Amino acid sequence: MRCAVIVFPGSNCDVDCFHVWKEVLGQPAEYVFHKEKFSPEDFDLIILPGGFSYGDYLRAGAIARFSPAMDSVYKAAEKGKLILGICNGFQILLEAGLLPGAMMKNRDLKFHCHDVYLKVGTADSPFTNMYLPGEVVKMPIAHGEGNYYADADTIERLKREDRIIFYYSDEKGNITDEANPNGSVENIAGILNEERNVLGMMPHPERCAEEILGNTDGKRLFMSILEYLEGRVKIGKSRRS
Amino acid sequence: MGKAEEAKKLGLTDEEYNLIVQTLGREPNDVELGMYSVMWSEHCSYKNSKPLLKRFPTKAPHVLQGPGENAGIVDIGDNLAVVLKIESHNHPSAVEPYQGAATGVGGIIRDIFAMGARPIALLDSLRFGELDDPRVKYLFGGVVSGIADYGNCMGIPTVGGETYFNDAYKDNPLVNAMCVGIIRHEDIVRGKAQGVGNSVMLVGAATGRDGIHGASFASEELSEESESKRPSVQVGDPFMEKLLLEACLELLKEKWVVGIQDLGAAGLTSACSETAARAGTGIELDVALVPRREKGMTPYEVMLSESQERMLIVVEKGHEEDVKRIFEKWDLYAIKIGEVTGDGMLRVLENGKIVAEVPAKSLAEGAPVIKREGKRPAYMDIQDLDYSKIEIPENLSEVLLRLLASPNIASKAWVYQQYDHTVRTDTVVPPGSDAAVLRIKGTKKGIALTTDCNGLYCYLDPYEGGKQAVAEAARNLVVTGAKPLAITDCLNFGSPENPEVYYQFEKCIDGISEAAKALEIPVVSGNVSFYNESSSRVIFPTPVIGMVGLLEDVTKHCTMAFKNPGDIVVLLGENSDEMGASEYLRVIFGIQGGKPPRVDLEREKRLHLCCLKAIKEEILSSAHDVSEGGLAVAIAESCITGNLGFEGEITSDIRADALLFGEGQSRIVVSLKEENLPALIEIADETGVKATVLGRVVPEYFRINVKDSKGGFKKIELSVGEMAEIWSKSLERKVEG
């Protein structure tokens, strides 16, 4: 399954995402430079990687959404292609309006790089079908602006539509303020769009997908994508119920 | 004001000024004088340190590039090489901590990719005053966020380093940044302006007035006026540097690139004169062609600006458009500003009119070397302590907790969690262990990285302290399973004009050299930072040792954390009756004195062989170096990081506090499955290392009984939860409380 990793000038997790898809999963991957356009038919999965897209001195992801490559991303999203935004990629998806809400600086104004526990909010997605709902997994975070905010109506809707994919939690899965590294509303760490083909998340699954790195919890996210793309799982059960 | 007077104001001595006049055959003009004053500053010329630096061992079969280039390079097999360099940014950080530290990181990264290498890791060795001082807190916070913002944006993981607090650094903090890169042998480029007629191009950021005379500022003591030197501090733009990095690495794949040089201290003046001097050529350039970010800049300002994120590139004539094409992709300019000449002159024009003309070699390498005589500091003769007057505290559990709470021993998570240390997905052992371990993708190999120095040891005995810094760094690599490969050193001292400081400098160099020779680890790059003092205090002599080691099979790496309850805990090496210069004496008794622990290099070497072999044969569960806080702290750290306990008993006639908290060298605490014990004993016998069983890994509790032959008995008894709470939260509480 063909994956495009979009390279903004300040992307720095592009090589990591490329590595996981190509070397760990053994699937074809290509870099797409931000100045290039592509056709929605060219790829099955598009990753917006972490980093500092255009320096992000203004606001993370604020300029990236105007790039030529993002034009193609909008079209691909419309066609139902899978879009995965990680960290800065999540920030870009919010700025681009492909996901609802906004990102603020971490509540303690510090950059945070450490492992967090995540409670799986929904396994009914192209991205998390190999996790169990409610399961607790561990992934690293590395961001200064990961404080997710959306108004109460939006949060209500995200919940109703089963679109919250991960919550920051403790090791046992309790969603507590102590387990919230950045101040995100309701400990939200990642969300889906309404059609469930666009995921934005702050934690870095690509950084925990190999045994040598001491943690493989992130690998299942990429394997879930592959399962879905190869037609072995169907999603959307929760929307029907 | 006469020229000679002007020269003096710029920091040049009469002798130096006369030499300039003699070299030029005339008085220098203002531009020339400015260029000489920065290039002949201590920071750029190493005029006080050059002869002593020659004492370092710099050669070994695996050294591909020794000192003298932007960075050192060592072979790691598989056609790959590791590039390494450390540099100080102390003075800028003392007056403007955020930008000072940020641009320190920016500069060291450029040194690495100037060799053609992809930077893969950063380390930071930091020293500040005690955290109860509000200004120290401000400096500490500013430095850490400056490093974080720059390194994080670049996507280069900050994987290690060290942070010490001592009032010796109160006025003059130390900010040393180390960068490590990886490169294929055939991609190595050097900073040479070769080939008469070739084009000299400037790429990256536009030139402004920031940082003028930064190099000179770094070459004088801090004073009341230092605050007014804030404009001498450069301003960093990590996004610009990220673009520059990607564009340069793309460019350097081309065969028509002749040389490349970072614009750091002394900006264009230094980059042009150094590249020309290395190649034995000259450069003619026109400052009118240099893109500016400010209007009305004079040739003087353009030549001396230390604006960041710029590189000088020399390419074969006719490839200028090719360079532009690559840089335009990254939205950067690339402008031809001059060309290589055969006459050895650095000729600066402004719109075709000559404004400066001096021999490049004289600028870059001609500063007269200053020979100084050291004088053994008087304080060294009154340092002997009578330990019999120091009573062993009743409650040693309490002592251990206080040591674990000391910011010099406590977890540095507050610092390194602000650094992205997992980007690039190579970080196998993250910060917080003895050394960081990175895998090398596409091979089975890994590298281990550390920086080390105990300034107090070096103060009390510069020679032993220098030796110890090398031994400690090597030991930190060895406990991960890595064989030490190379050293990059950052020598931080006070004013060399003070004979006592010069003595410290010379003795530290001798100690480092002796240890490097004995352990067979060449010095491949480094930096000297003098004048780290204020009117009220001189820093401890602090020769920071950055070291890289190689793991042939990264999957066999070892960490310090205890792994399994029931494992046997063994001490490799011998306990000694040494308590001098210890964190124990400092924290518990407020004493910074005594003789620092001595390193027996022969014994050290055998210990390394023993530990490396045991790790290679995969019989160890954990390995941890014994350093600040001694044996008790080392075991406690293995407990805390492994979330397990320890139960053991030591019988010794060494007094209990020296045994538990003394910092005797050449010791490693390992844990292993009981069935592996005979194999370890065999390796220890083979290598001539003493191995003593200390006890066992248990759940939850930490208990040590110490007995002597006269029936004396002391104990430590604590819950690991309590120790962990104190160790992991102390620094945060000190900074934020």
Describe this structure in words.
In chain A, 22% of the residues lie in helices and 24% in strands. Chain A is globular and about 45 Å long. Chain A has one domain (3-240): 3-Layer(aba) Sandwich (Rossmann fold). Chain A has helices at residues 14-24, 68-78, 88-95, 152-160, 219-229, 237-240, and strands spanning 3-7, 29-33, 45-48, 82-86, 102-104, 112-120, 136-143, 147-149, 164-169, 188-192, 198-201. By secondary structure, chain A is an alpha/beta fold. In chain A, the strands form two sheets. In chain A, strands 2-1-3-4-11-10-9-6-7 form a nine-stranded mixed beta sheet, with helices on both faces. With 737 residues, chain B is an alpha+beta fold. Among the domains of chain B are: 1-39 and 190-367, PurM-like C-terminal domain (Phosphoribosyl-aminoimidazole Synthetase, Chain A, domain 2), CATH 3.90.650.10; 558-737, PurM-like C-terminal domain (Phosphoribosyl-aminoimidazole Synthetase, Chain A, domain 2, Alpha-Beta Complex). Chain B contains 25 helices and 26 strands. Chain B has a seven-stranded mixed beta sheet with strand order 8-10-7-11-9-12-13. In chain B, strands 21-23-20-24-22-25-26 form a seven-stranded mixed beta sheet. A six-stranded mixed beta sheet of chain B has the order 1-2-3-6-4-5. In chain B, helix 8 (134-154) runs parallel beside helix 10 (238-251). The radius of gyration of chain B is 26 Å and the shape is globular. The interface between A and B is medium-sized, with 35 and 34 residues.
